[in-house]
Amino acid sequence: MDTTETANQKRSPRKISWDVIRVLAVYSVVIQHITHQSPINHPELGPYPFVLPLQFGASTLLVISAYFVCVTVRRGNTGTWLWNRLARLLPAYLVAVVLTYAVSRAVAPLFGWYLPTPTDLLANLFLVQAWSPQFHWVDASYWTLPVQVMAFFVAALLWPRGWGRGAKLPVLLWTLILAPLVIRFLWRGDGAQQWVISLFDGLALHRVALFGVGAAIWLWTKGRFSGRHLAFYLLAALVAQDAHAYFADTPSTIAFGVILLGIVAAAGGPDWDLPVLRSLAGPIRWLGGISFGVYLVHQELGFVLARFLLDAGVGAWGRLVLCTAMAVLAGWAMTRLVEAPAHRWLTTVWPRRWAAARNTVLAAAEALRELPQVPQPQAASSGGSPLMPDASPLVSHASTAVPEPRNSSAPGAAAMASSQRR
């Protein structure tokens, strides 16, 4: 997930309200995966002192991302915007995939866990994990990355074509809710053909409404959605999300709805400049700033650490605290050593070098075009040529005849004459 509002921060002070929501979302994901998901994936890792079963953090982050897509895509060149977003997202993700794959390959024989294959690695690097049952997720929490990259490309494609103006965008947002529901219950059942499953899951059609939610909140802040329209849209999105899960996890949907109210308040109201938050602004902003790195490294690597701690006799509280601390420290390292420098290099150094190389090539091409043209010799023709004047008919005829020997007394000439007489 792209959890930084880089373009927005350049133009306005950073609101602590967004960091509060971001921190709540990311670290609820961490705790939920440690206490609830790890015993499901690896039963030997549980139980923990408590369980947080509510799944709402990743969806919250996608809504925030969609909102800031609408805020930032309107500014400047769309291609530059897309490059900036991908430069923030992909380098850290690719490094996290390789790191998680290497660690999983190393420990799988020790623990009896699934051994990821080179095919799994390539599928995860190219963000096509959901397109085939032959591919396995290196880390299941990475499901948000293909969805987000796809959303960035769609935004960069549609926005310059006027989809942010008029009625096009509201129509698109309602389509994001209704069309996937129709496909889900008419064609994407458990017995559906594999190509239908691959297309539905690969395009993450059961999640695209989350981007509609973020865009709808932005439209509301611009006065293009009424409060009633926004409320109706959010309610429809929540029902649709619960329906995609066959209404098996309604408590998570309710928790997500509560978080959506916080997002609406952060987007449309004043900053949450409360005394408690003001005193904790530094830690909150720091945790919010490393949230993407934390998200990338917390789950599968956390499972590995929990298994080592379990084998070492560490209790449930100790495993919970140490796995959470590992997520924070490793997330900070990923942000500091990979995400931030890669983004800085790809958005500052690389464009300058690319522009310089491009200008050099164009200058060289222009110089070649300005070189004087060297006349090329032309073959003789009946029409004549300034370089090769016409040969007279006599010369042309003579050039094909055998010349008479000048000195008939020469031995070669005598032999030829004798031969001709015979």
Walk me through the structure.
One of its GO terms (biological process) is polysaccharide biosynthetic process. Residues 374-422 are annotated as: Disordered. One of its GO terms (molecular function) is acyltransferase activity, transferring groups other than amino-acyl groups. It comes from Actinokineospora spheciospongiae. Residues 17-335 form the Acyltransferase domain. This protein has 422 residues and is mostly helical. It has one domain (6-357). The protein is 69% helix and 0% strand. It has 18 helices and no strands. It has helices spanning 6-11, 16-41, 57-72, 78-111, 118-125, 144-158, 168-186, 194-202, 209-221, 227-244, 250-268, 275-279, 281-289, 291-297, 300-311, 316-370, 393-400, 411-421. It starts with 5 loop residues before the first helix and ends with a helix.
Task: Compile the SSE list and pairings.
Blueprint: H1 6-11, H2 16-41, H3 57-72, H4 78-111, H5 118-125, H6 144-158, H7 168-186, H8 194-202, H9 209-221, H10 227-244, H11 250-268, H12 275-279, H13 281-289, H14 291-297, H15 300-311, H16 316-370, H17 393-400, H18 411-421
